[in-house]
Amino acid sequence: MSQPGAKILVIDDEPQIRKMLRITLQAHGFSVSEAGSGEDGIIQVSTVRQDLVILDLGLPDIQGIEVLRQIREWSEVPVIVLTAKDREEDKILALESGADDYVTKPFGMGELVARIRVALRHGAKSKDDDGPVLTFGALVIDVSRRTVELNGEKIKLTPIEYDLLTVLAKNAGRVITHRQLFEQVWGGKFQESDSQYVRVHIGHLRKKLEKDETRGTLILTEPGMGYRFDDRVSP
Prior knowledge:
Keywords: DNA-binding, Phosphoprotein, Transcription, Transcription regulation, Two-component regulatory system. Helix content is about 40%, strand content about 20%.
């Protein structure tokens, strides 16, 4: 589902890239707006509701990573980083700063559109769907409302983090491999390099849910395999 009419903001200082993205995405039924600088992008995200942001890291005024961090201070809008930087360190930094996905230039429009659809699916899942309430000690996951509470306080999770948590919690006690997590949360065909996506977002979850995220008492690491949600231990 391409979610026709979904609003996408492209933050990129290259007019040719913005034009190509605008024409292609509009052809797929999306509504596209543009920003040629980081400052303009931040203003547009803060003043107009966006369904997804495509963000270039090499902006002329503010580094894209800083733009991403500022957006993440008050918004959970899905963000796909689009950049010529292809080093693993850059990808990890973008993910750790709150990006939902990472696409390097040059890129195929088919792949980008597919990744946009996945990100929109995570960001726009209905909160009215029927579902159970999962309780693990002080941790409560209300699947119908897509909310998470710990010790009575609501925990703010990104759509990716929430989907990872629910997949693990619904399979509590079972080992879920990197491949299974990636295919259920991100969709698409799994490659070994995608394990890094999973590890980074699991790290984010642990920081929000566990007293000592380095040890992992709730989300356990199964070396060389994946993760297991331990329903016997309260966070």
